[in-house]
Every structure is written in C-alpha cells, then in structure tokens.
Amino acid sequence: MSAGDHNVSGTWLGNYYYSNISQATGFEAVFVQSGAAVEGSILDDGALGEAHLTGSFGGGELTFCKIYNSKARDPVYYRGTLSEDGKSMWGTWRINKECHGMWKAWRLDDEELPEQLETDEEVKQEKELLAPLTSPSKSR
Q1: CA-based angle 32:38:43, to the nearest 5?
Q2: Please, which residues bridge with residue 78 across strands?
Q3: 69 pLDDT exceeds 60?
C-alpha cells in the first residue's frame, strides 16, 4: 500500500522545530479527511494553545493552514509527506521568511508510538536534510 492509498483521519502526536532551535515543541492533532479535503484541530504544548486547520491530502502529500483560536497569531502553513505505511508524516512549516522550520507526527489510532520519538542527533540530521526546503527562496 502506498502513502497515497492512506487516509490521514485520526489522532496524531508530533513535534515541530524552529529552524534555529533544536528543542521540540509538542502537539496533538486530529485530522478529519473527506475526499481530498482535510480539517481538524491542533493543541500545541505551551502557551500557543488550540488551533483549527483546513487543507488537503492527495498522492501522499498533506498541506494545511493552522490558525490559532486566539486570533492574535499569524497563520502557519504546513506541507508534508505521509510515510508508505501511513503511520508517520513529516515536512516543513512556515509563517513568513524569518519564521519557519520542520515537523514530524506519528499516528496514535490503535498504534503504539515508537519508544523514543527521536533523538537530538536525528533532529540535527533531519534539519540538515530539510535546510534547502525551509530556506527562503532567493529568487522571486
């Protein structure tokens, strides 16, 4: 089964990272997929709190916009890829040219999370791999 054959509906536990900070911020997301449309909610650890999201999923690619319920925050735009087994996804997020980073999430529905979600070394390696994707484009 390919990533495109899966549905992202369900509960996901994840981390996001700012491009200049290696420490993770955790979140719990609930996605509801209907056709290609995706909506749901995210609860960030810490002060940012709850947000709602709308987006789309197709061909193994997920895109969505997260808007915090406080309305005082700028929207956050996410782009990601679902794993072949449909149990994890990862990608990049961006608020503006200066504020961006990467994220990773694991499906919680009837599944056990990996014993250790990821190590600092894995985060460093992933940031190096994703650096060209999260760097602001110099042309445009």
Answers
A1: 65
A2: 64, 93
A3: yes
Length of the chain: 140
d(CA 75, CA 33): 20
pLDDT of residue 88 exceeding 90, the answer is yes
- Spatial contact of 103 and 80, defined as CB atoms under 8 Å apart: yes
- Degrees, nearest 5: CA angle 99-74-131: 20
Task: Report d(CA 12, CA 28) in Å as an integer.
Answer: 6
Q: Where are the beta strands (DSSP E) in 69-120?
A: 76-82, 88-94, 100-107
Closest CA to 31 of 12, 16, 49: 12
Q: Which pTM does this prediction carry? A: 0.76
